[in-house]
C-alpha cells in the first residue's frame, strides 16, 4: 500500500469528503442526540444537567394527542397513496415500454416543481368559494358551499398530492420486475385470479410496498407547511411541533427528542424493508 | 381484463395530479382580484411581481444560492463518487451509510441538526449557512447519479492511462471526467432544482440578512390567497420543466 504522500490526490479527496460529512452530518446528529438529554436554557438553548425530561414531556397527554393525530393523518395518507398507487403502478407496468418512459417523466415533473406552490394551488381548489365548491354548486350536487379547507381531510389530500409519486415509483419498479412466467405458472397450476394475487403478486411486490410506505409515512409527519397552508391550527404534524419548539418556544431538548422519535421510526421502517427483501431472497425468488 | 380499464385509471390519476398545476397556470393570467372568478386575461400579476423589489431580490438570492449549491455539491459529490468507486479505504461503509442517512432521514431532522450546529459554532444564519445546508442535502443525489455512470464504465481505461505514465490526478482529469460529464451535468441540474425548491431546511437555517424565494412564498401563502403567487408559481414551473427536460436530454443523448 502506498503512503499518503505518494497519493496526494486520494488523500485530498478523502479528507475533503470525510471532513464535510463529519462536520455537517455526524456532528449535527450527535448534537441533536445530546440536546435531547439536556436541560432547556433560555440563553444558550441547552444546558447541563443531563435529564430525560424532554422524553417524559413526549408522554404529556397534550403532546401525545398531537403525535397520535399526526400519526393517524400520516397513516391515512400512506393508505390512500397505497390504494391509489398500487393499481396505478400495475397499470403503468402494462403500458408499452416507450410510452412508459413518457408517463414516468410526467409523474416526476410535479416532483421537480416547488411543493409550496403546489400546496397553494390546492388551496385555490379547496377554498370555500374555490373551484371545487363552485363546480359542485353549479352541478347542483350541494346546496351550500362545504368547508373543505382547514380540515383534517384537506391536510391528508395535500400530503397525498405531494407524496403520491414516492409511493408509485418503488411500486412501479417491483411491478416492472414481476415476471409473466410466475403468473402463468400460477395460472397453469390451477390458481384463479384472486389466489394468484394473494399468493404470488402480493409477496413479490411487498418490498416495493414497504419502500413506498417508508418514503411516504415519514415525510407525511414532517412536512409542516402542509397543515400551515391547508389545515389550520388544529391539524398539526410532528413536524409542526418540532418547528415550534426550535423556532418559537425555544425548547431544544423537547424538539430534539421529538425528532429522535421520527428518526427511530425511520430506522424501524428501514429494518422492516430490509427484512422483507431478505426473506424474498431466501425463498429463492 | 380489458385494456381500457387500466388506461382510464391512469388518465384519471394523471388528471388529478395535474389539475392543481393547470389551475395555477390559468389563474396566473386572471385579471380578477378575488382569485376565484374569471375576470379576463391579464399580465398584471406578473407585472406586480417584478415591480416588487423585495421579491426580485429574493429571486436573485435564490438563483445565486441554487447556482452555488449545485456547483459545490457537484464538485464534492463527484469526488466522493470517484473515491467510493476507485479506492479502497477504511470506513467506506460508514461513508456510504452517512450519505444514505442524509438521503433517507426526514428533512426536518436534517434541518434542526444543522441549525443546532450553526448556532453552537456561532455561524451567522444567512448565505453561508444556507449554502452549507443545501450542499449537504444535494450531495447524496449527485453521488448516486455519478456512481450510476461509473458502474457502467470500462475499468481498463484508467489502467491504460496509468500504464502510459499518468498519475491519479492526470488520469482523473483526462479519462474519468470526460466519461462522467453527462452525470455531472445531470447531478448539477438535480442539485439546482432541489436547492431552488427547498422549504423545510431553508426555514431553519436562513436569517433575515438573506431572504430567499421559498420563504418569501411561504410567508405570502400562509395568509389568504395572493394572485402574485400564481404568477410566481407558473414561472418556477416553466423553469423547472426546462431544467428537467435538459437533464433528461443530456442523459439520453449520452447513452446513444
Automatic annotation (TrEMBL), chain A:
<dbReference type="InterPro" id="IPR035906">
    <property type="entry name" value="MetI-like_sf"/>
</dbReference>
<dbReference type="GO" id="GO:0005886">
    <property type="term" value="C:plasma membrane"/>
</dbReference>
<feature type="transmembrane region" description="Helical">
    <location>
        <begin position="196"/>
        <end position="226"/>
    </location>
</feature>
<feature type="transmembrane region" description="Helical">
    <location>
        <begin position="154"/>
        <end position="175"/>
    </location>
</feature>
<dbReference type="GO" id="GO:0055085">
    <property type="term" value="P:transmembrane transport"/>
</dbReference>
<dbReference type="Pfam" id="PF00528">
    <property type="entry name" value="BPD_transp_1"/>
</dbReference>
<protein>
    <submittedName>
        <fullName>Spermidine/putrescine transport system permease protein</fullName>
    </submittedName>
</protein>
<feature type="transmembrane region" description="Helical">
    <location>
        <begin position="101"/>
        <end position="121"/>
    </location>
</feature>
<keyword id="KW-1133">Transmembrane helix</keyword>
<feature type="transmembrane region" description="Helical">
    <location>
        <begin position="252"/>
        <end position="272"/>
    </location>
</feature>
<feature type="transmembrane region" description="Helical">
    <location>
        <begin position="12"/>
        <end position="35"/>
    </location>
</feature>
<feature type="domain" description="ABC transmembrane type-1">
    <location>
        <begin position="67"/>
        <end position="273"/>
    </location>
</feature>
<dbReference type="InterPro" id="IPR000515">
    <property type="entry name" value="MetI-like"/>
</dbReference>
<keyword id="KW-0812">Transmembrane</keyword>
<keyword id="KW-0472">Membrane</keyword>
<feature type="transmembrane region" description="Helical">
    <location>
        <begin position="66"/>
        <end position="89"/>
    </location>
</feature>
<comment type="similarity">
    <text>Belongs to the binding-protein-dependent transport system permease family. CysTW subfamily.</text>
</comment>
<keyword id="KW-0813">Transport</keyword>
<keyword id="KW-1003">Cell membrane</keyword>
TrEMBL record, chain B:
<dbReference type="InterPro" id="IPR000515">
    <property type="entry name" value="MetI-like"/>
</dbReference>
<feature type="transmembrane region" description="Helical">
    <location>
        <begin position="229"/>
        <end position="251"/>
    </location>
</feature>
<keyword id="KW-1003">Cell membrane</keyword>
<keyword id="KW-0812">Transmembrane</keyword>
<comment type="function">
    <text>Required for the activity of the bacterial periplasmic transport system of putrescine and spermidine.</text>
</comment>
<feature type="transmembrane region" description="Helical">
    <location>
        <begin position="9"/>
        <end position="29"/>
    </location>
</feature>
<dbReference type="GO" id="GO:0005886">
    <property type="term" value="C:plasma membrane"/>
</dbReference>
<keyword id="KW-0472">Membrane</keyword>
<dbReference type="Pfam" id="PF00528">
    <property type="entry name" value="BPD_transp_1"/>
</dbReference>
<feature type="transmembrane region" description="Helical">
    <location>
        <begin position="97"/>
        <end position="121"/>
    </location>
</feature>
<dbReference type="InterPro" id="IPR035906">
    <property type="entry name" value="MetI-like_sf"/>
</dbReference>
<dbReference type="InterPro" id="IPR051789">
    <property type="entry name" value="Bact_Polyamine_Transport"/>
</dbReference>
<protein>
    <recommendedName>
        <fullName>Spermidine/putrescine transport system permease protein PotC</fullName>
    </recommendedName>
</protein>
<keyword id="KW-0813">Transport</keyword>
<keyword id="KW-1133">Transmembrane helix</keyword>
<feature type="domain" description="ABC transmembrane type-1">
    <location>
        <begin position="59"/>
        <end position="247"/>
    </location>
</feature>
<keyword id="KW-0997">Cell inner membrane</keyword>
<comment type="similarity">
    <text>Belongs to the binding-protein-dependent transport system permease family. CysTW subfamily.</text>
</comment>
<dbReference type="GO" id="GO:0055085">
    <property type="term" value="P:transmembrane transport"/>
</dbReference>
<feature type="transmembrane region" description="Helical">
    <location>
        <begin position="175"/>
        <end position="196"/>
    </location>
</feature>
<feature type="transmembrane region" description="Helical">
    <location>
        <begin position="63"/>
        <end position="85"/>
    </location>
</feature>
<feature type="transmembrane region" description="Helical">
    <location>
        <begin position="127"/>
        <end position="148"/>
    </location>
</feature>
Amino acid at each position: 500500500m502506498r503512503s499518503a504522500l505518494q497519493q496526494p490526490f486520494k488523500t485530498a479527496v478523502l479528507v475533503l469528503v470525510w471532513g464535510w460529512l463529519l462536520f455537517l452530518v455526524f456532528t449535527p446528529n450527535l448534537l441533536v442526540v445530546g440536546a435531547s438529554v439536556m436541560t432547556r436554557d433560555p440563553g444558550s438553548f441547552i444546558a447541563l444537567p443531563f435529564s430525560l425530561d424532554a422524553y417524559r414531556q413526549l408522554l404529556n397527554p397534550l403532546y401525545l394527542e398531537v403525535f397520535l393525530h399526526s400519526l393517524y393523518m400520516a397513516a391515512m395518507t400512506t393508505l390512500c397513496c397505497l390504494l391509489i398507487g398500487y393499481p396505478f403502478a400495475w397499470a403503468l407496468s402494462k403500458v408499452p415500454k416507450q410510452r412508459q418512459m413518457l408517463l414516468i417523466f410526467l409523474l416526476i415533473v410535479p416532483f421537480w416543481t416547488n411543493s409550496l406552490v403546489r400546496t397553494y394551488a390546492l388551496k385555490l381548489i379547496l377554498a370555500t368559494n374555490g373551484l371545487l365548491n363552485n363546480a359542485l354548486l353549479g352541478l347542483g350536487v350541494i346546496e351550500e358551499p362545504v368547508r373543505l379547507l382547514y380540515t383534517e381531510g384537506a391536510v391528508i389530500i395535500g400530503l397525498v398530492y405531494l407524496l403520491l409519486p414516492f409511493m408509485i415509483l418503488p411500486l412501479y419498479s417491483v411491478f416492472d420486475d414481476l415476471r409473466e412466467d410466475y403468473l402463468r405458472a400460477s395460472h397453469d397450476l390451477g390458481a384463479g385470479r384472486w389466489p394468484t394475487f394473494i399468493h404470488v403478486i402480493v409477496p413479490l411486490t411487498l418490498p416495493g410496498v414497504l419502500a413506498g410506505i417508508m418514503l411516504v409515512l415519514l415525510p407525511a409527519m414532517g412536512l409542516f407547511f402542509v397543515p400551515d397552508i391547508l389545515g389550520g391550527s388544529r391539524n398539526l404534524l410532528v413536524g409542526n411541533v418540532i418547528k415550534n419548539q426550535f423556532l418559537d418556544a425555544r425548547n431544544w431538548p423537547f424538539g430534539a427528542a421529538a425528532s429522535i422519535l421520527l428518526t427511530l421510526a425511520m430506522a424501524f421502517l428501514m429494518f422492516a424493508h430490509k427484512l422483507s427483501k431478505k426473506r424474498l431472497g431466501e425463498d429463492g425468488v | 381484463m380489458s385494456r381500457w380499464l387500466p388506461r382510464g385509471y391512469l388518465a384519471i390519476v394523471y388528471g388529478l395530479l395535474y389539475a392543481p398545476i393547470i389551475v395555477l397556470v390559468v389563474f396566473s393570467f386572471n385579471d380578477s382580484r378575488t382569485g376565484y372568478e374569471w375576470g379576463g386575461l391579464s399580465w398584471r400579476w406578473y407585472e406586480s411581481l417584478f415591480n416588487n423589489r423585495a421579491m426580485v431580490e429574493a429571486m436573485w438570492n435564490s438563483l445565486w444560492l441554487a447556482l452555488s449549491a449545485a456547483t459545490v455539491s457537484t464538485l464534492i459529490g463527484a469526488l466522493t463518487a470517484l473515491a467510493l468507486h476507485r479506492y479502497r479505504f477504511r470506513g467506506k461503509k460508514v461513508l456510504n451509510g452517512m450519505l444514505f442517512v442524509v438521503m433517507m432521514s426526514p428533512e426536518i431532522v436534517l434541518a434542526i441538526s444543522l441549525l443546532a450546529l450553526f448556532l453552537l459554532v456561532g455561524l451567522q444564519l444567512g448565505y453561508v449557512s444556507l449554502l452549507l445546508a443545501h450542499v449537504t442535502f444535494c450531495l447524496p443525489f449527485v453521488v448516486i447519479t455519478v456512481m450510476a455512470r461509473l458502474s457502467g464504465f470500462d475499468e481498463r481505461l484508467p489502467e491504460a492511462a496509468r500504464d502510459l505514465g499518468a498519475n491519479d490526478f492526470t488520469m482523473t482529469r483526462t479519462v474519468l471526467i470526460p466519461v462522467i460529464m453527462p452525470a455531472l451535468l445531470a447531478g448539477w441540474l438535480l442539485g439546482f432544482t432541489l436547492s431552488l425548491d427547498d422549504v423545510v431546511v431553508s426555514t431553519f437555517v436562513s436569517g433575515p440578512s438573506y431572504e430567499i424565494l421559498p420563504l418569501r412564498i411561504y410567508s405570502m401563502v400562509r395568509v389568504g390567497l395572493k394572485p402574485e403567487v400564481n404568477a410566481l408559481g407558473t414561472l418556477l414551473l416553466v423553469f423547472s420543466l426546462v431544467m428537467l427536460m435538459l437533464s433528461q436530454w443530456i442523459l439520453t443523448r449520452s447513452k446513444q
